[in-house]
Automatic annotation (TrEMBL), chain A:
Pfam families: Fer4_22
InterPro entries associated with the record: 4Fe4S_Fe-S-bd, 4Fe4S_Fe_S_CS, Helical_ferredxn
Alphabetical keyword list: Iron, Iron-sulfur, Metal-binding
Organism of provenance: Parvibaculum sedimenti
Name assigned to this protein: Sulfite reductase subunit A
Domain of life of the source: Bacteria
SUPFAM superfamilies attached to this UniProt entry: alpha-helical ferredoxin
Residue ranges annotated for the 4Fe-4S ferredoxin-type domain, each copy included: 260-291, 341-369
Single GO molecular function: metal ion binding
Glycosyltransferase listed as a keyword: no
From TrEMBL, chain B:
Official protein name in the record: Oxidoreductase
Keyword Metal-binding among record annotations: yes
Pfam family, one: Oxidored_q6
Protein source organism: Parvibaculum sedimenti
Keywords: 3Fe-4S, Cell membrane, Iron, Iron-sulfur, Membrane, Metal-binding, Oxidoreductase
SUPFAM superfamilies: HydA/Nqo6-like
Upper lineage: Bacteria, Pseudomonadati, Pseudomonadota, Alphaproteobacteria, Hyphomicrobiales
Amino acid sequence: MSTDLALQIGEHALLARAEFGKLIDALRGQGYAVIGPTLQGGAIVYSEISGESELPVGWTDEQEAGTYRLKRREDEALFGYVAGAQSWRPFLFQPRRTLWRAKGSAADFAIDPDVRETPRFAFLGMRACELKAVSIQDRVFMDGIHPDADYSARRDAAFFIAVNCARAGATCFCVSMDAGPRAEAGYDLALTEIIGEGRHDFLLEVGSPRGAVIASLLSLRAAGDGDAAEAEAIVERTAQSMGRVLQTEGLKSLLQENLEHPQWDDVAERCLSCGNCTFACPTCFCHTDEDVTDLDGQAAERHQRWDSCFSLDFSYIRGGSVRPGIASRYRQWMTHKLANWIDQFGESGCVGCGRCITWCPAGIDITAEAAAIRASIEKD
Amino acid sequence: MAKSKPKLAVWKFASCDGCQLSILDLEDELLALTGEVEIAQFLEATRAVSEGPYDLSLVEGSITTAHDAERIKMVRQQSKMLVTIGACATSGGIQALRNFRDINDFVAAVYARPDYIDTLATSTPIAEHVAVDFELRGCPVNKHQLLEVVTAFLFGRKPMVAGHSVCMECKMRGNVCVTVAHGTPCLGPVTQAGCGAICPAYDRGCYGCYGPQDTPAMPAMSKVLEAHEMKGRDIQRILRTFNAHAAPFREESQRHDAADDQG
């Protein structure tokens, strides 16, 4: 086994299953908090890990609209599941945080910006759709004249290890959104898990100088043409087995031209307006600020927390909420995600991860809703 | 020169006292609270009472007797601001189960001498009797939200109390959805946040302690509960707990009356 492979960006090599733990060790050795897939609460949950024993070895998931179940696999795959219950979003865009604190005195007040040390995360097991989702949130939080300092700092410090999908779930449609299943860009390292007769390896590809440094700390062996072809075939099979399809051609105008379509009322009868879709979505970025004071008024804090277009308060302006009905809220979410996002940011806000379908307690399916509107228009 | 502190009064109607205990449970903040307000009436904590009028009244409990229906008017007259705290005061509480049956049957079943009992046929929230300035939900109320309500009152601003679903705080907490991942029926989608999604954090479905969220989709909720093997009678029962009389829960539970009869 060679350990002298000095990989350049774009080059690949094989990492044996038996050597996999050293990847986590190397990342931790470089000061990263490694966040990887774990089994928690009956699902795959991305959480901090200290070693390979915490990975969901031999587990997979079955997802459908409104249901998610863990199942045993027949092999010992490390990444044999599809997309985790929650994306990596909470690590970069925190559910709650304090923006600043202020202390009052008799004449004045002083602001403490509440700057904290930026955690250095290594995300182990990012799917192509999740990498794409991060790039979409990057545009929201880091582009423009007011970049979000906390998100930017966490994002810049983070190390991304992608895993190309060897399986598609029943709610997956990344192919429709041109967001997977192969990680094309944005990773430091990418892995394809190859399990076959007598072998369990990872084809490791280097995507950045930081990735090359970590790769240099691993026991790798040269990959042959057959290995690369096998990895390619695995991803291709996944691409061919997507559980869902979202027809994107003309979708933007289809939605924008049908704001009064009866399908919005139809979905409103099933929608709980609970907001689960927006908090499971890896690209939803809405948040609100809340100011609190202590009892004597001498200290104040501004908090930021996730918010959702499904809450009544979200569209509250003087005199009431602009979107009192559930139909208008579902329409706002879906037309923003699939259509108006393109006007706003130049690309769709959906990556086809399927979380909004799986984690909707009512099992509402964004691909089916879009298809229903399309079918009724094409019929007319 | 000592400033004149606003007078705070705490009142009890038909209730278990749990929400008043949430005030006493503010251990770390109690001294600061007494620094800012004069606790003028709080019998759960002290016999010392000073006369009204009061700047802020916190009212616990529901109206279940003719006497209390008059007493709440007196409280209102003496209070500049009146805030109701807890499921009893805001929706009638668990004792509002009487609203769905004949009170005389209950009295006969429970008491050896029914003729000693003088009670109303219903248990109703304070807001059905007098004007209420703010309603703080929960069974019991969350002490941090309670402190926020009092603090907001002191500065004349609106309390930061969200009206959205439990699901949102459940996801913010990092819980895995118990309905989707375990098939456990849960009222989180129609229930107002505030508890911190405690039950789902311990693999239980939400019991709806905080009452209906801003825009609860009750028929859609029933369909999801049915899909997770709850029958009409069970749905009626889960909706008829601490907030049984809250209109969205009450009306949806009544839709399942036919199922109840088949029992």
